[in-house]
Amino acid sequence: MLNKVPYVTVFFWIIKILATTVGETGADFLNVRLGLGLNGTSVVMTVLLVAVLAIQMRSDRYVPWKYWLVVVFLSVVGTLLTDTLTDELGLSLYISTAAFTIALIATFFVWYRREHTLSIHEIDSPTREAFYWAAILFTFALGTAGGDLVSETSGLGYLTAALIFGGSIAAITVGYYAGLLGPVLAFWLAYILTRPLGASIGDLLTQAKTDGGLGLGTMPVSGVFLVVIVGLVTYLSITKVDAPADAPDSPSASA
Length: 255
What we know:
Membrane-anchored protein, mainly alpha, transmembrane helix, DUF347, transmembrane, 9 helices, membrane
C-alpha cells in the first residue's frame, strides 16, 4: 500500500472545515427536515459509512473522492453519535466530551504502542488506516460534543464559539511554525478543533435568528457546501497537488 492520506495543503483544511459543517447541517437536515428521526438517520448513515469505508479500504492508494467521501460520512456519523448520547440517553455534554476524549486518547495510545508512529504520512497498511479512521471518528464526535458545550451549554453563542475555536487553531499554527509544537501533535490538535469550528459555523448559518443564528436553513447551506466540496475534490483529482509523495502520479514522484 502507498500512503492513503493526502498531503496537507490549504485545500485539505478548507475541505475538512466544509465537511464538518456539512456533518452538522446534514445530520440536522436528515433528522428533522426529512423526518427520519435520530435513530433512523443514525442507522442509514452508519450503513452508508460502512459501505464507503469498505471502498476506501480496498484501495491501495489515495484517491481524492474516496477519501473525502469517507470524511463527510464520518462527520455526519460523529455528529449523530454525540446527539444520540445527549438526546436519546440523556448524558450531559460534559460526560460525552470526557468520554470521547478518553476514547481518542486510548486510540492514539494503542495505535502508537502497536505501530510506533501517529504520523499521517505513514498510513500505508490496513492496520494503520483502521487506527486512522477510528481516530477521525472520535475527533468528530469529540468536536461535536465540545463545540456544543462551548456554544450552547456555556451560552457563549455560535459566533463567539467559532472565534474561540478559530483563534485556537491560529495559536496552534503559530506554535508549530515557532517550533513549540511537533508536526504530529499540531496536526491532531488542529484536526480536533476544526470539527467544533465547522459545527459552530454551520449552526451560525442555519439556526433561527432567535437562537443566535442567521436562519439560512440546513438545505441551502448543506447544498452549497457540498457543491464546493465536490468542486475542490474534482480539482484535486485533476491536478493531484495533494497526492502523497510516494504516489506514482504525484508531482514530487514525477519530478
